[in-house]
Amino acid sequence: MTKETLREITLREAIDLYVQDMLPPGSAADVTRHLKWWNARIGHLYLSEITPKLLTDYKNELLAEPTHRGKKMTKKKELEYEVDEGNIFAALGRKDADELLARSELLDEVGDLIEKSGLTQHEVAKKLGVKQSKVSMLVNGHLSEFSTDTLLHYLAILGCKIEIRVRKPRRQNIFSGRGCIAIC
User: Fold this and answer.
1) For labelling, which of 41, 42, 85, 100 has a CA lying 20 to 30 Å from the CA of 179?
2) What are the structural domain ranges in the chain?
């Protein structure tokens, strides 16, 4: 996963995706409480800003706080957190991880072009035919707000040449393996 891709999603969005798609209904209250705790502390940060040291520091802060029952968290209750430098969406167990990663890379391209244009968000909004709030969402990496088609449309308006290449499978049985989606 590129650094640009990691700038596209905040921890808050990753937590929301996890809760929505991965967390079983009626999960333990501790899990929900801990996710809310992380969300409140560093949910605003983009994944690219979250380092192992930062996670360790906040984990130690969490462990030092009393539990909801007023007791200190014991070693048995300590949570393990893992930093994954691959596809964050795959790490979250998303079946559409390739598509989400590709869309996040497109969003990053749109955001970079807007930021480098020197135009105000209002000026960009007029050129794209959207409200200024949509431009703000583009620049701030709100992935869930935009489809791949919409992002490709914006890239074309912003002057990009977009090429889509399809490579056919080499095997006779076309269903023998899953392909992938990638932005080059």
Assistant:
1) 85
2) 3-91, 96-184
96-184 falls under which CATH superfamily? lambda repressor-like DNA-binding domains (1.10.260.40)
pLDDT in tens, 109-161: 999 999 999 999 999 999 999 999 999 999 888 888 899 999 999 999 999 99
In one-letter notation, the amino acid at residue 56 is T
Phi/psi-derived region of residue 26, left when phi > 0, alpha when psi is between -120 and 50, beta in every other case:
left
Both tokens assigned to 120: 């105000």
CA distance 102 to 182: 6
Q: Structure tokens of 108?
A: 């990053």
Task: Give this prediction's pTM.
Answer: 0.54
Q: Is 167 left (phi over 0), alpha (psi -120 to 50) or beta?
A: beta
**What CA–CA distance (Å, rounded) separates 55 from 122?**
37
Q: Cα–Cα distance between 43 and 31 in angstroms, integer? A: 16
**First CA to last CA distance, the chain:** 12
